[in-house]
Amino acid sequence: MTDFRDRLDTHVTRWVNPTIGALKAYPVPDSTGLLKLDAMENPFVWPEAMQREWAELMSATHVNRYPHPDAPDVKAGIAEVFDVPEGVDILLGNGSDELIQLIAMAVNGKGRTIMAPEPSFVMYQMVARYLSMEYVGLPLTDTFEIDIEQTLRRIEAEDPAVIFLAQPNNPTGNLWGDEKLRRILESARGLVVIDEAYTAFTEADYLDWLSDFPNLLVMRTFSKVGLAGLRLGMLFGHAAWIEQINKCRLPYNINSLTQATAAFALKHFSVFENQTQELVRQRRQLSAQLAELPGLTVFPSEANFILVRTQPGQADLLHAGLKDRGILIKKLHGSHPSLEDCLRVNVSSADENRQLLDALTELCAE
Ligand SMILES: *Cc1c(COP(=O)(O)O)cnc(C)c1O
């Protein structure tokens, strides 16, 4: 038996790419029984009538056949709901995570580089590693702004194939500012992907910029508006780009249930808009209330989460203390040097925010 185990390990070590061997699979903490305020999900469920209508639609959706390869109903709904400009094509992914991977696959090659600010969304870096691409992180300032002169120098020196810019940024919550984005788009020879995962929570919107910049793609997702379980992301760009990236997509990546549900959700999109607007109102209130707690520094947010910094050495204690009280938030401390003592909390319903605040008030008084 041990002999078999040794042989197995020998095979795995011999053949798995060392970059993959050194990685850890994307960690998702067990949230059983906890109030989940760690992953930017929408806390609200659907009105009962909508739930019933959807259940009927699901029972009439047959899964014996393959899904439609191009999901035209979903794309038509997206074009209408998001006011997609004429001449802009759409590519759908199994979450925008998949789209990040498809973009990288399409431009991959020896010595090709992915660039992104740091700290930002971890999948940009992970995808670079999966594909043995170079990855360059651009350090942000103390207040998590882009240092534009340094960034332009790095772009010049590294000539990245893709720059991913989450706008607003995760986990910091801030916007980069139009002027900096414009200068990056003008100096980069490669693709610039503006990742608008949090578009529902901000006025910033770059779809219109597609007509000005031939190297721009804009990415969005249904996850943060209330459909995280669907796994549906969308990429907007000129046909010339979308056509190439589409070749890397596995056939039928958007399953029948997702297609039917997404088309249905788009018809009822005002329900989601009302929910996300409520979260924007709650964000204002929660930010103000968190700022009143002793020892917490609150960073401004244009998303459905808030970044806070605790007193030195307190992040672990607060994170664990909340967990003991049945609340799961994201501990960022330890994930990047500039996120020292940092935690990230979701903005949720009034009731759930209250539970978070009550628990934090107790913990901060200890
Ligand atoms: C959550 C998030 C995503 C991932 O979205 P999925 O569609 O769920 O894969 C992409 N980009 C950013 C910046 C995010 O925060």
Question: Can you describe this structure in just a few lines?
Answer:
This protein is of the alpha/beta class and 366 residues long. It is 41% helix and 16% strand.
Question: Could you describe the 3D structure shown?
Answer:
The longest helix is centred in the C-terminal third of the chain and has 24 residues, at 269-292. The strands form 3 sheets. Strands 2-8-7-6-5-3-4 form a 7-stranded mixed β-sheet, sandwiched between helices. Strands 9-10-13-12 form a 4-stranded antiparallel β-sheet, with helices on one face. The chain folds into 2 domains: 29-46 and 270-365, Aspartate Aminotransferase, domain 1, CATH 3.90.1150; 64-268, Aspartate Aminotransferase, domain 2, CATH 3.40.640.10. α5 crosses α6 (123-130) and α7 (148-158) runs parallel beside α8 (178-187). The chain has 13 helices and 13 strands. The chain is of the alpha/beta class and 366 residues long. The radius of gyration is 22 Å and the shape is globular. β5, α8 (178-187) and β6 (191-195) form a beta-alpha-beta unit. The N and C termini lie far apart (53 Å). It binds pyridoxal-5'-phosphate. Pyridoxal-5'-phosphate binds at residues 40, 95-97, 121, 166, 170, 195, 197, 221, 223, 233.
